[in-house]
Design a protein that fits this description.
- The longest helix has 30 residues, at 477-506.
- The protein contains 18 helices and 24 strands.
- The protein has a 7-stranded mixed sheet. A 5-stranded mixed sheet has the order 3-2-1-5-15, with helices on both faces.
- With 507 residues, it is of the alpha+beta class.
- It starts with a strand and ends with a helix.
- Helix 10 packs across helix 16, helix 11 (302-312) crosses helix 12 and helix 13 packs across helix 14.
- It folds into 2 domains: 3-242, ATPase, nucleotide binding domain (Nucleotidyltransferase, domain 5); 252-410, 2-Layer Sandwich (Nucleotidyltransferase, domain 5), CATH 3.30.420.
- The chain is globular.
Length: 507
């Protein structure tokens, strides 16, 4: 039996899981670390915290499993995307990493757009400039910390810093590199044009690989530190969403997944590149060589329900503690008592601005149609429906781009709700499924390692062998017809509220 290791370097912590070649998880360990906010809107982490978490979790997993390290055939890395790691000439970290959710770079976004041109930037990088992408972070350091920029000799993404520490190699792969806004997405290589216009030296960037390719091997020093075998191959791996796609089997045309976490993501695989010129969705290279994915984002998906629960569902939370159940179990039960349309109540889930299809930081949440007849359960139902309508907006953009979305997986905390999955099935008009294995990104990159080391011949083959469906919600025609009428009303709300949101932001 062959074994493979998946390491997921997330924002709250690093999770390492050891799998056998059939995808069965044998041992798992998670190490957490802090997030630093030195100023309002800033978000940073210390790459050395990530490394300590990786060393600790790998050591624990090997010890717990009892498996000989010689039988671990490969390692896959997943990680939070967009973070900036800068190393000096001695390969030491220069400053804390500016991570994905940092919002300090609005001026740099304007600068990038001005220097490259909005349309040309979308044509090359498949996306408009936004604060989250790495390019804006590089430009911020260049503009605000020139002493640090002058010392910089290597620019890496979070998981690629871990790769360097494991192997001594400077490498990245196409899915994570896509989120830097420096990659030519159609050509799957660094864009000389963008780099030249932004004044970024190409020699600072790592070599780009496809996700299942072997990028290096574990060094002797790391082997002694972790219990791994020296020479264990480390493959390219993937950014977190691309890794989750492999871990849920979304690796062939027609397949997609919806995540309802704090934010909501609709992610669709495509073998033909498709770019939205309006910039409403992200197009990135995916972890399947020669293929891409399109991703829409709802900023406040599960966060909308959490906000409502924390502020208005104190009695439900107390009851849940006494019953020994999750509070969301009770909010689901309450929402099930309310008919489709929440008794003529609509909710706009734009608590913190929106990404898809309305790239508008000023957008805000709203209940539309409140009356004295409405109760808390109506509002809970309206929140869940509003998030579902927003996710349907993402799917509509994809269908407009002629991307086939006909087979949908559900994951994230919201994906555990049968009611929410049924809403999505009814609104998407296709089955919504879950998988038996819940390891997501860690499993995804472990399968990439299995492909890179020859256990499987291709990513789709690995997924067909390992990923098993669990629960399936099929669309109910009668429900779909009812939702469609409400969705049409929902779609009209934002255009009518856009100017009001802008004026509110100026108060």
């Amino acid at each position: 039996m062959a074994y493979i290791l998946g390491v997921d370097i997330g924002t709250s912590g690093t999770k390492t899981v050891l799998f056998d070649e059939n995808g069965t998880a044998l041992a798992s360990a998670t190490y957490e670390y802090p997030l630093y906010t030195p100023q309002n809107g800033y978000a940073e982490q210390d790459p050395e915290d990530w490394w300590r978490a990786v060393v600790g979790s790998i050591s624990d997993v090997i010890a717990e499993s009892g498996i000989s390290s010689a039988d671990i055939k490969g390692i896959g890395l997943s990680g939070q995307m967009h973070g900036l790691v800068m190393l000096d000439a001695e390969c030491k970290v220069i400053r804390k990493s500016i991570i994905w959710c940092d919002q300090r770079t609005s001026k740099e976004v304007e600068e990038i757009t001005s220097k490259v041109g909005h349309d040309r930037l979308v044509e090359i990088t498949a996306n408009p400039a936004i604060t989250g992408f790495t390019a804006a972070k590089i430009m911020w350091v260049k503009n605000n910390e020139p002493h640090n920029y002058e010392r910089c000799r290597h620019i890496l993404l979070p998981k690629d810093y871990i790769r360097f520490m494991l192997t001594g190699e400077f490498a990245t792969e196409v899915s994570d590199a896509s989120g830097m806004q420096l990659l030519d997405i159609p050509k799957r290589q660094w864009s000389d044009e963008v780099l030249e216009k932004l004044g970024i030296d190409k020699s600072l960037l790592a070599k780009v690989y496809e996700s299942p390719e072997i990028t290096g091997t574990v060094t002797k020093a790391v082997a002694e530190m972790t219990g791994l075998a020296e020479g264990t191959p480390v493959v390219g791996g993937a950014g977190d969403n691309a890794a989750a796609a492999v871990g849920t089997g979304v690796v062939e045309d027609g397949t997609a997944f919806t995540t309802i976490g704090s934010s909501g993501v609709v992610f669709a695989h495509t073998s033909d590149i498709s770019i939205d010129k309006k910039g409403r969705v992200h197009t990135f290279c995916c972890a399947v060589p020669g293929c891409w994915h399109v991703m829409g984002v709802t900023q406040s998906a599960g966060l909308s329900l959490k906000w409502f629960r924390d502020n208005l569902c104190w009695s439900e939370m107390e009851t849940a503690i006494n019953m020994g159940v999750d509070p969301y179990y009770l909010t689901d039960k309450a929402a099930m008592e309310v008919p489709i349309g929440a008794n003529r109540l609509l909710y706009m889930p734009y608590l913190n601005g929106e990404r898809t299809p309305h790239l508008d930081p000023n957008a805000r949440g709203a209940f539309i149609g409140l009356s004295t007849m409405h109760k808390k359960k109506d509002m809970i139902r309206a929140v869940m429906e509003g998030v579902s309508y927003s996710l349907r907006d993402c799917v509509e953009v994809m269908r407009e781009m002629r991307i086939n979305v006909s087979d949908m997986m559900a994951c994230g905390g919201g994906g555990t709700s049968p009611l929410w999955r049924q809403m999505l099935a009814d609104l998407y008009g296709c089955p919504v499924k879950t998988t038996q294995n819940k390891e997501g990104p860690a499993l995804g990159v472990a399968l990439l390692a299995a492909v890179g080391t020859g256990i499987y011949n291709s990513v789709p083959e690995a997924c067909r062998a390992v990923i098993k469906e669990d629960k399936i919600q099929n669309p109910i025609t009668e429900n779909s017809e009812k939702y469609e009428k409400v969705y049409e009303l929902y779609r009209r709300l934002y255009p009518r509220m856009k100017q009001t949101f802008a004026e509110l932001a100026e108060l």
